[in-house]
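Example for tutorial group B:
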């Protein structure tokens, strides 16, 4: 039947001579733009306003019909964010938290994501044989990311793993417990990244690509790295749930190694908070997403 060129809305482009594989959902993106009425209008350079605080009890609650529209838009965006567009993942995950009772502020924020997508519908992931043969991870956390009491002050943690010069796995989610410090928030995020690293290593081995040596996971908090690497049970970490010390075990058995990376070079930073235009453009470059963008 020939080379695979489409799969569940994913477009696949191969350049075997140069060892390049590109993935995007341009057709799906244009379809949902038309479906939800964003075929024209204003464009945005970022998917989310970096200064707006989104709360549960925002004024101007939407009516029942608008709630259904909101849920439909969020659902279509989630499919896109999970499979090929990590650049919108934080914004979509954040706004999905208000799906049962959105306000007009949340509705405007979702519409902004669509207008951002219209400025770059064919942005996608490119892998190459020269992009590196090692699995590399990045983990970050935004301590108290909600910044409001209604959100429970729970931090947002994220990770992203790359192989062949492009991202293959990414996640952004609120933590299940309240972190009492930035170190603890990062430590919890490192645990989630360590679990994903172990799973990816097993998956790669199953498909005939066993990895030798530990998988490098970059983090931007030196205290959290020290906490994961030092077997001494620190008094300040006594209250941390024992499950999060899983990272220490994986560091000790050489499954992963944690290395420091400055925040400006941290790929996962854009999965924990909204960014301004300059930082967002840098985030796209670090992700390795490519494609045409509106000027």
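The residue assignment follows.
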């Amino acid at each position: 039947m020939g080379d695979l060129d489409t799969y569940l809305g994913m477009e696949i482009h191969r350049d075997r001579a140069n060892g390049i594989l590109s993935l995007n959902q341009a057709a799906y993106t244009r379809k949902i733009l038309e479906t939800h009425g964003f075929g024209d209008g204003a464009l945005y350079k970022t998917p989310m306003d970096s200064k707006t605080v989104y709360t549960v009890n925002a004024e101007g609650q939407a009516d029942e019909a608008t709630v259904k529209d909101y849920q439909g838009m969020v659902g279509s965006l989630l499919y896109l964010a999970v499979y090929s567009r990590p650049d919108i993942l934080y914004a979509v995950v954040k706004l999905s938290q208000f799906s049962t009772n959105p306000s007009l502020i949340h509705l405007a924020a979702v519409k902004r994501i669509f207008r951002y997508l219209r400025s770059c519908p064919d942005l996608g992931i490119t892998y190459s044989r020269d992009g590196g043969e090692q699995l590399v991870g990045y983990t970050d956390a935004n301590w108290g990311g909600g910044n409001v009491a209604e959100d429970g002050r729970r931090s947002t943690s994220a990770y992203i793993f790359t192989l062949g010069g492009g991202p293959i796995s990414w996640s952004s989610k609120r933590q299940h417990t309240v972190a009492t410090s930035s170190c603890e928030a990062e430590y919890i995020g490192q645990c989630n990244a360590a679990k994903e690293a172990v799973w990816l290593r097993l998956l790669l081995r199953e498909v005939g690509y066993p990895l030798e040596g530990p998988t490098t996971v970059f983090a931007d908090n030196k205290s959290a790295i020290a906490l994961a690497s030092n077997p001494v049970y620190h008094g300040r970490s006594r209250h941390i749930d024992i499950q999060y010390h899983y990272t220490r075990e994986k560091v000790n058995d050489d499954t992963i190694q944690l290395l420091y990376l400055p925040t400006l070079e941290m790929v996962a930073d854009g999965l924990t908070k909204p960014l301004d235009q300059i930082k967002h453009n840098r985030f796209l470059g670090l992700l390795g997403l490519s494609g045409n963008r509106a000027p």
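The longest helix spans residues 182-206. Compare this with the pattern of hydrophobic and polar residues in the output above.
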